[in-house]
UniProtKB/TrEMBL annotation, chain B:
Listed GO MF terms: transmembrane transporter activity
Gene3D superfamilies: ABC transporter involved in vitamin B12 uptake, BtuC
Coiled-coil intervals: none
The keyword tRNA processing belongs to this UniProt entry's keyword annotation: no
GO CC field: plasma membrane
Record-stated family: Belongs to the binding-protein-dependent transport system permease family. FecCD subfamily.
Lineage, top ranks: Bacteria, Pseudomonadati, Pseudomonadota, Alphaproteobacteria, Sphingomonadales
Protein known as: Iron ABC transporter permease
Membrane topology annotation: Multi-pass membrane protein
Organism: Altererythrobacter rubellus
Domain of life the protein comes from: Bacteria
Annotated signal sequence range: none
Compartments, as annotated in UniProt: Cell membrane
GO BP annotation list: siderophore-iron import into cell
TM region positions: 46-64, 76-95, 101-121, 128-150, 218-251, 263-285, 291-310
Amino acid sequence: MILCADNISLSRGARLVLDQVSVRLEPGKITAICGANGAGKSSLLMALAGLLETKVGCVLLAENELSGLHPQIRAQRIGYLPQEAEIAWDVAVENLVRLGRMPYRDRGDAAVEAAIAALDLEGLRHRPASQLSGGEKARALLARVLAGEPQWILADEPLAALDLAHQQTLLSHLRKAANAGAGVVIVMHDLATAMNHADRVIVLSEDEFAGHVAADGAPEEALSAHNIKRVWGVDARWIGEPGARALMTY
Amino acid sequence: MNRAALLFAALLVILLPLSLLAGRVWLDPFTDPRASLILMELRLPRALLAIVIGAGLGAAGAAMQGYLRNPLADPGLFGIAPMAALGAVASLWLGVSASQWTLPVMALAGAALGMALLAIIAGRTGGIALFTLAGLMIASLAGALTALAITLAPSAFAMSEIVMWLNGALTDRSWRDVYLAAPLVLAGIALLGIKARSLDALTLGEVAARSMGARADLLLALLVGGVGLTVGASVAVAGIIGFVGLIVPHLVRPLTDRLPSSLILPSALAGACLVLAADSVVRILPLVTELRLGIALSLLGAPFFLWLLLKMRRGRL
C-alpha cells in the first residue's frame, strides 16, 4: 500500500511551508525525514497522515486520495505520533495504550499486550501518566500507535526523549514492523541515527520562499557531506563503516 | 456500567425516598392522610426535577472538562447558561411570564441563540481555543445584558423577581417542569454520550485525536447540542444552578479510569445525587425563608474550587 504525496504545497496561516513536494513511500522500509528547523518536516509528516489540508496537490494511499477516506478507515491504516507528548488526564499506561484501538472500536487485547511488551512497559502497566518520566511517556505514546496495528507508522521525533538503550529498542521494533510489511516514516534530527537505521532519507531544506526536497535517496547519498554542507551549512565528515557511521563536525 | 456509576446509582436509590420524606415537616407516609397528595403533587416532581437537572449539569460538566482537557472547565463557560438566563430575564422584564410556558420557552430560546452564536463564531474548524474564547465572550455579553435588565427593571417587583429567579431554586415546581426538562436533558445526555470515545482521544491532544479518527466538527456539534439541551433546559426550569458541573466530575474521577468517556454516566448520577441532596437540605434548614438552591450550591462550590486550585498548585492534580 503505497503512500504518496503528489506535488503538494502546504501553508500554515499565511506562510507557505512546503512548495510542490512529491514523495512516493513504499511499505516495508524505514524512511527518515531530516532537515533544518522550519524546513517543513513535521508539516510533511502531518500531510502524509492526512491531518493537514494541502493547498495544492494531494496525498494518496494506495492510489486513493487520503482526504476522501473515512477518518476511521484512515486511522486504521495510518498511525501518527505527534511531537508533543501531551496526556491531559492521569490515565494509567495500559488504558493509554488501549486508546490506540479507537479506530477499530474494540478492546484488541492481543494488540495492546503486544505493544506493551514491545516497548518494555510491562512493569509500568498500572502507573498513572503523571508518574512517568519523559522517556516512559514517549514509549507509552508510541505503544498507543503500535496497538492500532497500522500499515503506516508516522512518528514525529519519537527518539528525542529516549535514552540510548530505549532508542535502540524502539528502532529495533520499528525495524521489525517494517520487516513485517508496515511502512515507517520518522522525522528525526539525529543524522547518524538516520544514516545507520533508515533505508531511505528525505532531506528538506528551506529557501527564501518555502521548504522543498533537497535530497532523497539512500542514506549514504542523501546525507553526503556535500548535502549536509548545502542544507545545514555545517562542515562534516562521516567516519566508520556503513551501518555504524558517526558524524564528525568541524 | 462502571463501578462509579453503580455506586452513585445505589446512592440515588437511597437518597430519593429520604428526599421525598424530608422537609420542614417530615412526612409519615403511613399515618398522614395527606401524604400521597403531598408526595405526588409536591415532593415527587421536585425530587425528579432535582435528579434531572443534576444529571444534566453533571454530564455536561464531565463532557466539557473532557473536551477542554481542563479540570476547571464548567458548562457555564460556553455562555449557554448565561444566555438561557438572559432569555428568562427578558421574559420577566417584559412581564410576559404570565403564561406558565413563556419563561422556560424564552430561556430555551436564549440557550439556542447562544448555541447558534457559538456555531457561527467558532464554526467547523475554529479549534478549541477560539471556541472557549467565543463562549467566554458570549457569557460576558449575556451577563452584562442581564445586569442591565436588572438596573433598568420597570418596577421594584420585577427587579426582585429577576434577582430571585437568577439564584436558581426548585421551590414550587410541578410536573409541568418535569415534562419540559426531562426529555430535553435526557436527549442532551445522549448526545454527550455518543462521541465520548472521541473525548478520550482528545486526552492526547487535538492532532492525535484527529489521527485516531475523531472528527472535530462532529464532536463540537454534538457537544454544543448536548450542553445546550442539558444546561438550557436546567436554566429554563430552575434558574442558574452553578458549580454542579464543576464539582461533580472531580468527585467521580478518582473512582474511574479517568478517561472522559468513563465519567459521563457516573457524573450524571452523581450530579443527580448532589442536587437532590442539596435541595433536601435547603428544605430542612430552619430559616425563615428557604435558602435558594443556587446560593447553597455556590456556598458549597466556591470553597471547593479554592481547594481545587490549592491542590493544583501543589501539583497533585
